[in-house]
Amino acid sequence: MSNRLIDLIGINKSFDNTMVLDDLNLYIRENEFLTLLGPSGCGKTTTLRIIGGFETPDSGKVLFNGEDITSLPPNKRQLNTVFQKYALFPHMNIAENIAFGLKIKNKSKSYIDDKIKYALKLVNLDGYEKRMPNQLSGGQQQRIAIARAIVNEPKLLLLDEPLGALDLKLRQDMQYELIRLKNELGITFIYVTHDQEEALTMSDTIVVMNQGYIQQIGTPESIYNEPENAFVADFIGDSNIIDSVMLHDKLVSFLGKKWDCVDTGFGENKPVDVVIRPEDVVLKEEGAGTLDGVVSHLIFKGVHYEMEVMAGGFEWLVHSTSMFPVGTKVSISVDPFNIQIMNKPESEDEEAVHIEE
Ligand SMILES: Nc1ncnc2c1ncn2[C@@H]1O[C@H](COP(=O)(O)OP(=O)(O)O)[C@@H](O)[C@H]1O
Ligand SMILES: [Mg+2]
Hints:
Layout: E1 4-15, E2 18-29, E3 33-37, H1 44-52, E4 59-64, E5 67-68, E6 79-82, H2 94-104, H3 109-122, H4 138-150, E7 156-160, H5 168-185, E8 188-193, H6 196-202, E9 205-210, E10 213-218, H7 220-225, H8 230-235, E11 240-248, E12 251-254, E13 257-260, E14 270-276, E15 282-285, E16 291-300, E17 305-311, E18 314-320, E19 329-333, E20 340-343
Parallel strand pairs: 3-8, 3-9, 6-7, 7-8
Antiparallel strand pairs: 1-2, 1-4, 4-5, 9-10, 11-12, 11-14, 12-13, 14-20, 15-19, 16-17, 16-19, 17-18
Bound molecules: adenosine-5'-diphosphate and magnesium ion.
Residues 44-45 line the site of magnesium ion (MG).
């Protein structure tokens, strides 16, 4: 990928003596769809507001194309922000809402009319010019808010949980819409969400945050398949996270058994966490796998069965297309490749590194 558009360098921010961002370092490339993902209160919105210019860091710098914009006000930055609440002007029709920013910039009427048409087409709302905001559904209003941001031709679009108020079906439609927009417009998106599925669906890059610290930066695939610590593994999906000891390269011990794995370089007899995804737990006949247990819970989920298996004193979460009734004696087997070894978190400020391509 290309140039860095935004650099956040050593950003610190406290509110009322509470540290919200602690030495945050991050960059965003041109044309990247980057998502800040983390639980409520971890500092996502604060990070976005600092990029947008609505908040000033206590220390650290924000660069735009290499230029220091830390003290530049929002309207002087080449970006637009879409917030969770669409906040259209209720007394203006859709065309007037979209035109608002362009009128301030004294653009000509024909330029503005063209832009409105173009933006409405992009968000699949052609012909809505004369409607009033209260005649539109929540999803439509949010699309107008996005159209309003796009007509300003920002280099960068900041989106803070813009789909948070929508119901599930609409949210999924809008996710596809946003991906399409990003591809058609070729602008950079910084997206904030606490919804891991949304992040996995839309992003080129995900930044997982917790308590003001970056936990991991990577592609959706790498975050899902190779979480760097138990927080990321737990946050990014259902997982079996098991207290373990790495005996030596390619052999790990947990729940009283030795398991082959593929990881090396952790040293010998080193305490680690093991992550095993529920879909990677294979249930076999009693005695045929590595660890015997009993099915304690079963739910049909549509595509697969979700089961809990008590084995080795641990309640395993298992997803399988085969059904094992509650009470069935089974044996757990895991492909060495699907046993993910993680260092125990030493502290919360473990540095995450943005992998260069
Ligand atoms: N203006 C503010 N004044 C005081 N505390 C704030 C302010 N903005 C955010 N905070 C606090 O900073 C922390 C991070 O908030 P925020 O960035 O909004 O998190 P997120 O968007 O990840 O939910 C929270 O504990 C929040 O209460
Ligand atoms: Mg927030």
